[in-house]
Amino acid sequence: MKYDVTVIGSGPGGYVAAIRCAQLGMQTAIIEKYDTLGGTCLNVGCIPSKALLDSSEHYHNAKNHFKTHGIDATNLKVNLKQMIKRKGEVVRQTVAGIDFLMKKNKIDVFHGLGSFINKNTISVNGGDKDQTIETEYVIIATGSKPANLPFINLDKKRVITSTEALNMSSVPKHLIVIGGGVIGVELGSVYARLGAKVSVVEFLDSLIPTMDRSMGRELQKVLKKNGFEYYLKHKVTAVETKGPDIKVTAENSKGEQVEISGDYCLVSIGRRPYTEGLKLENAGVRAGENGQIEVDDQLRTNVKNIFAIGDVVKGAMLAHKAEEEGVFVAEILAGQKPHINYLLIPGVVYTWPEVASVGYSEEQLKEKEIPYKSGSFPFKASGRARASMDTEGLIKVLAHKVTDEILGVHMIGPRAADMIAEAVVAMEYRASAEDISRMSHAHPTFTESFKEACLAATDNRALHI
Ligand code: FAD
Ligand code: NAI
């Protein structure tokens, strides 16, 4: 078989690259080692985690907020088995959608482990039968796997990764989370809402430390009310398992040892690029020590006809970043001149309230010595937020001190995940804070708070605070 392009890996990077290549008239193949398409995101990442976040949020609201709304919901019970089953059904439908898209775009799907024989020949092993593909171009989109610490035995029963945390058979009594990043706070939230005590052990001094620091501080306050406790600036030194009991030992910034006992331990300290089994050496493709494939600014590897995208290359490990890169490479192959503005790839944390960010954080602006001004608006001053009882959080707009151009937007609050899109559009068009302040925002909506934060940033003229 001979193809113009062969994509290895069917996550959001790979399957989107394949679709765009096919749209541009290229004969395209995609290889996936698992039975279902969609990669980490659809099978054990974005989609199932959001399904459980939504289910657990319904329970949390019914238990804690319905009474105030005037709804009597007594005898509430969690049926975790059903919650997990529904999540499975959402995943099943979503991955089936990718099968449909492959057929629609006439992309040939190969199931099995893809590995290089040479730079133009790929072997696919482990499916129905072993096959060999000849190809002009290759796009590597093999994604990532959970990282671990050398001294932690991930038994996947009590000491688990996000994958097992999406398939629990009972709600933990005390979940110890190592790493207070995105997975830690999202999956920690699921089980905290369902009744678990959640202890987060984080190496740095705040939750979600890569985002604007004000977001982590706010999130910490809210999650504390939901049953979270924190061990910040703590370095884990040991994890011991004795039957169903877990003991995590950590060292605080004073060098003192702290012991935390629980029944489950979720290790969420980041993910590492995944290239095992690819036999990169047969094609001469260079990867760094941690497996990250080296690419230039066109996402081309050191071998001219081989590209790499998504979690397996540098940059944020996000599904929409992988998708943008998939489209980018397809368009490069078609001779176009695409562009990705990495600064404007938004980051979202699906806790409740949600956290969303785009552009520079305040810390980055300080470090880069870019003069800026800041305006913020709290949701407690929003009529829409009061109506829905979602008054926690705020929107912060950072604008250039002289030009008023919006440089960063950081929000924690209701539906921030969707609202950040307005900030992305504004920043792509290089809007000033005043530009947004002069645009009508429907009333009552959460988006009015963005306009108010822009008014506050323009020259401190928010109308409702
Ligand atoms: P992947 O999705 O990892 O796909 C790679 C695919 O390649 C896999 O299917 C793998 O089986 C296959 N593969 C690997 N090697 C081979 C081989 N040799 N041959 C054949 N196939 C191979 N991101 C967001 O933007 N939003 C979210 O809400 C979000 N939530 C997440 C929640 C969790 C719990 C996790 C773990 C991740 C989440 N992410 C989220 C991150 C997101 O899943 C990844 O950034 C995204 O999946 C990366 O896409 P990718 O195409 O690079 O790789
Ligand atoms: P992460 O990088 O978000 O967080 C890891 C955290 O662990 C960091 O805060 C780090 O300081 C801490 N840490 C590292 N080593 C430690 C140690 N030894 N002891 C204590 N703390 C330690 O990684 P996470 O949460 O595992 O997620 C992996 C990737 O998946 C992320 O890159 C993220 O982008 C992606 N993801 C995205 C989601 C979203 O977009 N909503 C949801 C879930 C995951």
Write up what this structure looks like.
With 465 residues, this protein is an alpha/beta fold. The protein has 15 helices and 22 strands. The strands form five sheets. Strands 1, 2, 3, 4, 5, 6 and 17 form a seven-stranded mixed beta sheet that branches. It has a five-stranded parallel beta sheet with strand order 8-15-9-10-11. The protein has a five-stranded antiparallel beta sheet with strand order 18-19-22-21-20, with helices on both faces. The mean pLDDT is 97. The structure holds flavin-adenine dinucleotide and 1,4-dihydronicotinamide adenine dinucleotide.
Most strands sheet: 7 strands, mixed
Q: CATH H level of the largest domain: which superfamily?
A: FAD/NAD(P)-binding domain
Helix-strand makeup class: alpha/beta
- Structure ligands: flavin-adenine dinucleotide, 1,4-dihydronicotinamide adenine dinucleotide
Which architecture of the largest domain does the CATH hierarchy give at level 2?
Answer: 3-Layer(bba) Sandwich
Helix content: 25-40%
Q: Which CATH class of the largest domain applies here?
A: Alpha Beta
CATH topology term of the largest domain = FAD/NAD(P)-binding domain
How many helices in DSSP terms? 15
Q: Give the N-terminus to C-terminus distance in angstroms.
A: 66 Å
Integer-rounded radius of gyration: 23 Å
Number of strands: 22
Q: Domains counted in the coordinates: how many?
A: 3
Strand content: 25-35%
Low-confidence stretches: none
Shape: globular
Overall pLDDT confidence:
97
